[in-house]
Amino acid sequence: RIPQSIIWRRKAGFGAPIRSWLAKDLAQGISEWISPSVLEARGLFRPEEVYQLQEDLRTGRRDTALQIWQILTLELWMRAYIDQRGEEPAS
User: Which of 54, 63, 68, 79 is least crowded, fewest Cβ atoms below 10 Å from its Cβ?
Assistant: First the structure.
């Protein structure tokens, strides 16, 4: 049996470990998926600005994990649904 206090409590959200993923599991992929050449070819973001976001996160200057995550997921989505071959954009 589940106590009533648990059944009727408010919903609680949870966060994904984005910072950890970016620093560990996805570190190698990030340098390939959102490299300056890929960003330049895609034409949506300034490569130097994205590089600065990555440096700020790496050095601890600013927490830019969410911005990097959004750029990364947009690039992977573009490859899967716009480019339709999963490849990086043609320059």
Answer: 63
> Token digits for 55?
């440096």
Q: What is the pLDDT of residues 9-55, one digit of tens each?
A: 999 888 999 999 999 999 999 989 999 999 999 999 999 999 999 99
Q: What is the 3-state secondary structure (H, E, C) of the chain?
A: CCCHHHHCCCCCCCCCCHHHHHHHHCHHHHHHHCCHHHHHHHCCCCHHHHHHHHHHHHHCCCCCHHHHHHHHHHHHHHHHHHHCCCCCCCC
Q: Answer yes or no: are the C-beta atoms of 87 and 79 closer than 8 Å.
A: yes
